[in-house]
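User: Structure tokens for this complex, please. No commentary.
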Amino acid sequence: MNRIYVIPERCTGCKSCELACAVQHSKEKTLLGAISQFPPPQKRLYVETAGGVKMPILCRHCDEAPCVNSCITGCLYKDDNGYVRRKKGRCIGCWSCIMSCPFGVISRDNQQHIAVKCDRCHKLDTPACVNACPTKALQLVEIDDLSAEVRNRVILTETAALRATGTAGG
Amino acid sequence: MNYTIVGGGIAAFAALKAIRQLDPHAHVTVINEEEHCFYYRPMTPLVVKGDRERDEILSDERIPEFHRLHDRAVSLDTATRSIALRQGGSHSFERLLIATGSSPVIPDIPGIHEKNIYYLRTLTDATKLREAAKKAKKAVVLGGGLVGIKQAVALNHLGIEVTVVEKEACILQPRLDREGAEIIAGKLKEKGIRLLLGESITEIGAEGRKVRLASGETIATDLVCIAVGVKPNLAWLSGSGLAIDRALVVDEKMETNVAGIYAAGDVVQSKDMVTGKTMVSGLWTNAVDMGRTAGTNMAGGKLKYAGSLEIMNATEIERVAFISVGNILAEGNGIDIVRHRRNNDVYRKLIFKDDILTGAVFLGDVTNAGIYTALIKSGMPLGHLKEKAIQSTLNYADCCMR
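Assistant:
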């Protein structure tokens, strides 16, 4: 199982991911088609800035997803890959998911009157945003590799700290 | 392990899923007397309106396997660990979840048991009202809360002349603040819905075809909808020895005072995360969390219920979306209220205690509302982010980089 992993230090705020996301969710799936589509296709991730750091904010496809838990129509569900997706025709636009998503990554499609969120480009091997990122701030990472990497990083930092305080044995 | 769940609403459904996840071979019995089991109750007004067919609001999830007893639990014996059933006989259990939900309050009005009086709670109620509405030209709705207003909108949409009778001076209390409610009220009036505020029904007569108001006015109608709130279904538990205060008393694991008996949803009381107040919540999202918590603990897992939010509503009425979360009606010393009315249809209100966000109302524009919900739940001092929250520029990156 893989997940989209964000490395904020690498993000330059170019918004290529936003553009690629909107194009991927347009009717023709081409840039020209997307910009001439009316109403224009909507992006599902958002490049934000805080404290001088830029980063794309996108759906985490949470294990216990608050959006799925608050969905009063049975529209949002977790598919077999663990992606949080919408069932066609079930959304009524009650916005309970918007109320409960702590990341603010669900928005409204005012034309169709339904909620819009990342579907992890479930038909593609690599999501459009990851493909489009020129600095590899967005990466597709196997969860097992990721946890190993995070573990290693934590061990390295902690042992370094212990060495610095002289409490580590060697 | 044998598990028994009494009730077929969302708390029961969430518990069933949690039990199955931890104990795939569990034998689960669901006792539920409703015609339908596991459906999306908040969608019932759409069935009345005709936007959704009955089958479209039934759960289409792969429902975990369970044994259904289509019956009503009439009493509980905690000593023998058995439940008496209405159709006779009893059912023994090892671990029990009580998720019997709530029922509409029947107000004490002369004529309340007349014909042509409708409540909207179950899917069966919705289809009955839908049928009645086909022949009706006029309707009176008693109660201007969320359920009453949704019925009024549905009936109005069907071309019925609707009058809403509400005892408060403002609709949608306490789900929306006054300013927000007045915007919605304006939309309803534009649609031709008559709102009688500060008014009540003193008598229903002529087989539900005549309604007398406190003001003395008499309204002719074809049907009367009653939507004056709900009360937890606890009558069957009297004498059971389960601790009941305003509703069933449970601990953080959703377990009652009797070991192995759990409860979740509209039948329990819980604490509001913001105010600390004990209350009985009828909200979907709280019920899901309670059910999941109860189911997990019943099946040997460990999960604590963090608390409820008394106000946590998202909906759309006549194309006006609104979300309200937390202590939205708070005022007084130390409470900082920031209102922003962008235009006729867009309004926002944030309530702070010092720099802690305790409530938020978004109307017309609900962008990023979930970030505010998370901040309200966390009780976290916002520091410099308070100003960003007020300016509507707060995003999740701010919360990460704080």
